[in-house]
Amino acid sequence: MADLIGLAIIFLILAIIAYVLGARGVAGMSMQIAKWLVIIFIILAIITFLL
Predict the structure, then answer these.
(1) Is residue 46's pLDDT more than 70?
(2) What pLDDT does residue 16 have?
(3) Is this model's pTM higher than 0.70 or not?
(4) Which whole number is the average pLDDT over 1-18?
(5) What are the φ/ψ torsions at residue 23 (nearest 5 degrees)?
(6) Alpha carbons 27 and 17: distance in angstroms, whole number
(7) 31 CB-near residues (< 8 Å, 6+ apart)
(8) Phi, psi of 2 (to 5 degrees)
(9) What mean pLDDT value characterizes the chain?
(10) How many CA atoms within 13 Å lie on the side-chain side of 6?
């Protein structure tokens, strides 16, 4: 599960860099990917703690 958080952080950093460089489309897409990876991580963490 730590890989999901690592990927989310990488996509977040990519989104920030793309936004600064002016690639708004890439930044938005990277933020969406990072958001979904964090959501998946939270769901899997809750399931793990419950089981």
Answers:
(1) yes
(2) 84
(3) no
(4) 79
(5) -90, 80
(6) 8
(7) 11, 12, 15
(8) -65, -25
(9) 83
(10) 3
- Listing DSSP states for the chain in one string gives -HHHHHHHHHHHHHHHHHHHHT-HHHHHHHHHHHHHHHHHHHHHHHHHHH-
Report residue 8 as tokens.
């989310």
Q: Residue 3: exposed, middle, or buried by beta-carbon count in 10 A (0-12, 13-18, 19+)?
A: exposed
Give burial (CB, 10 Å; 0-12/13-18/19+) of 46.
Answer: exposed
pLDDT of 1: 58
Asked if 47 and 7 count as a contact pair (C-beta separation under 8 A), the reply is no
Placement of tokens 């920030």 in the chain: 16
> 29: closest CA among 17, 10, 15, 49?
15
